[in-house]
Structures are given as C-alpha cells and as structure tokens.
Amino acid sequence: MKALLAAGGTGGHMFPAQALAEQLSQEGWQIAMVTDMRGKKHAGRIPADPIFDVQAASISPRKPHKIPSGIIKLIRGVGQAKDFIKDWQPDVVIGFGGYPAFPALRAAQSLGVPTVLHEQNAVLGRVNRVFAKKAMIVASGFDVLQRLPNGAKWEAIGNPLRAVVTDAAERDYRPPETEGAINLLVVGGSLGSSIVSTVTAKAVMALPPALRSRLNIVQQTRAADMDSVSRQYEEAGITANCAPFFDNIETHLARAHFIIARAGASSVSEIALMGLPSLLVPLAIAMDDHQRINAHSLNCAQKKRNAADILPESEFTPETVKNILWERLNDSTYLAAASKAARAAAKPDATNRLADLVKSAVRTA
Question: Is residue 237 predicted with pLDDT exceeding 70?
C-alpha cells in the first residue's frame, strides 16, 4: 500500500506526520511526502521517499497585498501535486494542515483519491476546513474540535507522537525530594519565545535563595536573548542549559519536575503523556486562539482536571510567575496530583488509531 503525507513546515504539522510514517512503514507501507521547501529541511527523520516539495503560500486577510501571488503559487502547486499523484499513484492522501498540504489535498480530491485529515489543535485549521467535508474522516488531537463544517465525519484520537517521545514517557513521575534538586524545563514552541524565556529568568531571580539554589534549568532561549539570560543564571549560581533548540527534548521532558511552555498541540500532548505539572502561556496571536483551547485540556473543571496553570500573555509577568513557581514547587502533593491529572488527559494510542483510520479509508473508498 502507498500513503502520501501532506504537511506544513512546522513541527506541529511534521511531528504527527513523522509518527504516522514510522508506524505505517513498519507495517510495510510505502510512504511519500509533500511539503514545501521549509518543511523539506525538517523532514530528515521522516521515513518517506520521495519527499516532494511543491509551491505553496499562506493566504491571510491580514496581508491582502500578498493574496494574488499566494493564489498563483497554490494553483501551480496543485498542478505539481496532480502530476506527482498520477505518477506515484497513492492509495490514500493524509493531510496534517498547513498551506503546503493544500495542493496535495486539492489534487487528491479532484482525482478521486481518498483523503484523511488530522487536525492537531482544538480548532480546525484553515486548510483542513476547506477539505473536511470530502475527507473520509477528520481525526483530531483533542476531545474538542471547533470550526468543524457541518456534515464532516470526525473522531477524536489524540496527537500521534514520535517514538522517541513515547519511549521516554515510560517512566514514573516523582516529585522532587524535600531539599532536593528541582528540574525546571522552559520551552517556547518550535521557534522559541522571547517573553517566555526572559520573564521566566526574571521570575527565577526573584525566588527566595533557598528555592532558587535547588533549581536545574533547561531553557529554550532565542539567540537574541542568550547572552542576557545565560548571564543572569550564571551570576545567580543557577545551573542552566540554555539553547535555541534541543534535538533531545524527550530526554529533558522525562527528567523534568515542572514545565513552563506554550500551548501548541504537540507540546500539550507531550506534557500530558509525560505526566508533567505545567504552567502554560498560550500564544496571543495564534489563529482562532487555538492555543488557549488546547491548554484547557489540562485544566478542565468539567473533568475535575487540574494539571496546569494557564496564564494569558498579558498576565505572564515576573511577579505572577514567581508566585506560581513558589507555590507549586514547594507542594509535592500538588505535583503528584497534577502529574496524575495530566496523564489522564493523554491519548497514548493516537498513532495506532490514526493508522487504523487510514487503513479503513482505503478499504471503504
């Protein structure tokens, strides 16, 4: 069997595609992938051959002057994708969102090739909305999926996570021992976050010395902020590993006692699987405010789930973060309960469930 994966160039789209590709390739499927040049640079770990890049562009009402050229690129991309599909003849096309997925999905549906969509966030993305009604199924990462068109078939399965993450999650969470070291992980999404990095550093500096001295910090830090942030930690005598990106983020997740993070779909899903107490800072400019809705999967009154504190950017100040860290890191009972609550939100079988939906789509097409 042949599966063609179509995904945008960010980790939020590429990581679930990688997880599915790993699963299907183990079952003997041939995998190909369509993305753009940006995605192709980040596709080295995806077991797909060929990895084909098409012309694509984001069309946003915020930038109306770029709409005409964007439409032209998408039309050219659809033509490229049609030629590829006719030549490679996939049994199914799976779209993971992002404008680089648009040409392949448009081409597949016009040629009668069955399509399956996976939406990582709690709000259906713009590209997936276009193709949802004609897709065999729309699978989603969370139990809530807003902006789903009427008539589209939907199933909540969770977000497929890479094998290195699921393997690292096979450990028991233990709160830090009294007076023992506390491992704090700070991440800001695939591109990092200046506000998360700099505000956290200021908050840590304001903690009482007795708590501050116990911290081991691993922090994703934008290159522009590296010198100032690293200097603050060094002068305070805090052990800190600061870098713009971590190739082995799964190792740091498995060691962490607490995490401060954005609320992208992959981050929230990894935090749940790892059973990590967290402070989440949804990206204020995220389309349709989807990060805020993602975050509420870890703090849901209806399900009595209190695994995370959620702060909008406007409230993410050094004083507020300091107070949260002081309260949470000194309370091992809370940390243990929050870890258990986070685990309850996890969907560890998401990759297998998506693979089953793909195989079902082929059988019933």
Answer: yes
Residue 205: pLDDT band (50, 70, 90) is: very high
Asked if 109 and 115 count as a contact pair (C-beta separation under 8 A), the reply is yes
> Which sign, positive or negative, has the C-alpha torsion 125, 164, 19, 297?
negative
Helices (H), the chain: 11-26, 37-41, 67-88, 102-111, 126-131, 163-168, 194-205, 209-212, 226-235, 249-255, 265-274, 290-295, 318-329, 332-345, 350-364
Q: Report the pLDDT value the prediction gives residue 190, as an integer from 0 to 100.
A: 67
What is the C-alpha separation between 270 and 298, in angstroms, rounded?
11
How many Å apart are CA 304 and CA 44, to the nearest integer? 41
Task: Answer yes or no: is pLDDT of 61 > 70.
Answer: no
pLDDT in tens, 182-192: 999 999 876 66
Assign domain 2-159+348-364 one CATH number from 3.40.50.300, 3.40.30.10, 3.30.2290.10, 3.40.50.2000. 3.40.50.2000
At the second CATH level, the architecture of 166-345 is: 3-Layer(aba) Sandwich (3.40)
State pTM to two decimals.
0.93
Interhelix angle 318-329/332-345, nearest 10 degrees: 100
> Alpha carbon of 108 to those of 14, 49, 120, 311: distances in Å?
20, 18, 21, 41
In this chain, the answer to whether the domains covering 2-159+348-364 and 166-345 adopt an identical fold is yes
DSSP letters, 64-80, are: GGGHHHHHHHHHHHHHH
